[in-house]
Amino acid sequence: MLSVVVFLPLVVCAVLLLLPRTLPDRTAVWVWIAAAAADLALVLALWAGFDAGGGMQYEQRTRWIPGAGVGYHVGVDGLSLPLVALTCLLFLAVAVYSLRETRRVRSYVCLFLFLQTVCLGLFVALDLILFFVFFDLSIVGMFFVIAGWGHGERARAAALKFFLYTFVGSLALLLGFIGLYLAADPHTFDITDLTRADPLAGRGLYAGLVLLAIGAGLAVKTPTVPFHTWLPPAHTDAPAAGSAILAGVLLKMGTYGFVRIAMPLLPGSWRHYALVIVVVGAVSVVYGALVALAQTDFKRMIAYTSVNHMGYIILAVGAAGTLAGSDAQARSLAVTGAVTQMVSHGLITGALFLLCGVLYDRGRTYAIDAYSGLAAHTPRFAAATAVAAFASLGIPGFSGFIAEFQIFTGSLASQAVATAIALTGILITAALFLRALRTMFLGAPRLPETIPTGGIADLRGSEAAPAVTLLGMALIIGVAPRWLLDVIEPASRTVTGLVAR
């Protein structure tokens, strides 16, 4: 059933490519919506039958390249199942939002269906080469989304920068995987076998170099400072749907890789270099928030807040390493907060980028100063954007508060100074969102010259439904998080137990 979830979008993609060219564009989008809804329903069925304390479940293992120790091995636990569900929900939201798309619609739909299979495949992969294949294919898919449906000539340059940066990162990741393979006896790329064997225990410099290669590859994808420079142009020049998937799903490939691969497969090196990871996380938090504060482009501002929010995750997983051998509860709390933050960021920032698309559709610019008094013209759009902004800065009642509270509580036990520095990121994030909301939605009405004399249209149904659904899920998690935490916490304890061994 898990393989059906992964490959259903790709099968639908193949069917769409075989259908006559006379198929109406809107029909292609509705086929995508149906496929995304069916995939989400299958994931909910998996969730209903999932035993939170049962470890890895729904496993499937098949020989693929046996001579090289490579197999098709998939499964889910409390770390991956929430991200699989997030992926299906986000792709469904983007599919509904894409009912407004008019450019080369069938190619657009097929590309996103391909990306959905790739993203799902990575989160369920339990073989390093299988993980790498999906990791690389995600780069290819998003390159074509940005280059083909982005904003003008700049989009091609942004797509090229995105591809080159992340592809180089994937090569470093592959080197690290080969290092693990060579150290294992017998040689294998299987993640569960490598976790049990801990092949690099006591290997000193060699283990540190393997962690550096894997960490650098994942840091580019996350992205953390200083590997983040590809992100703002990629987001700014990508279509809204592409930005939502890039921020909501693809960035999580990096952070997920840290908790699925780097921490459990290299526990000794993770403990040894945990303080470096904490510093990188704290710097990313503050730097991302400060640079976002300086932006005059609304979409670019949101892109830099992703650097800030991903920094919280890196801080948490680093702090879990420095806590090894001491407070088990704090370690587990930090990692649980990190995974919850992955889900929360995907929901909230995904909604923000879809709303950015509405803004650009109406005014053909993201410039904050080009708008004023929008609340009078577009009350529904103003309300949705304000809710998303407050959710992003982590106020109580939304998922961001639950995630950040766990991260800070777990990290304080060993990294009080770094955590205190990271806390300033919340204040800066509040300032930048409040400034943008005041400028764009309050004051005397003023609209860009690109808007027709007839005024500016408010949110339509196909635009409002995806954003409201994502924000509604963030609210549900914020008010009643137990159903999500019950799934994540046992897996977090397992990972932090491996780091402390």
Number of strands: 2
Determine the structural class based on helices, strands and strand pairing: mainly alpha
Task: Give the DSSP E fraction (strand runs of 2 or more residues).
Answer: under 5%
Largest sheet: 2 strands, antiparallel
Low-confidence stretches: none
Q: Major sheet: order of its strands?
A: 1-2
- The helix tally amounts to 20
Helix amount: over 70%
Q: Residue-averaged pLDDT, rounded?
A: 93
Distance between the termini: 34 Å
Which value, in Å, is the CA radius of gyration? Answer: 22 Å
Summarize the helix and strand pattern as letters.
Answer: HHEEHHHHHHHHHHHHHHHHHH
Note the overall shape: globular
Describe the protein.
It is a single chain. This protein has 501 residues and is mainly alpha-helical. It contains 20 helices and two strands.
Please specify the SSE layout and strand pairing.
Blueprint lengths: L1 H17 L6 H24 L8 E9 L4 E7 L4 H17 L7 H20 L3 H22 L2 H32 L7 H7 L7 H17 L9 H7 L2 H26 L1 H6 L1 H20 L4 H25 L5 H36 L10 H4 L1 H14 L6 H14 L3 H26 L19 H19 L2 H19 L1
Antiparallel strand pairs: 1-2
Helix pairs in contact: 1-2, 1-4, 2-3, 2-4, 3-4, 3-10, 3-14, 3-19, 4-5, 5-6, 5-10, 6-8, 6-9, 8-10, 9-13, 10-13, 10-14, 10-20, 12-13, 12-18, 13-14, 13-17, 13-18, 14-16, 14-17, 14-19, 14-20, 16-18, 16-19, 17-19
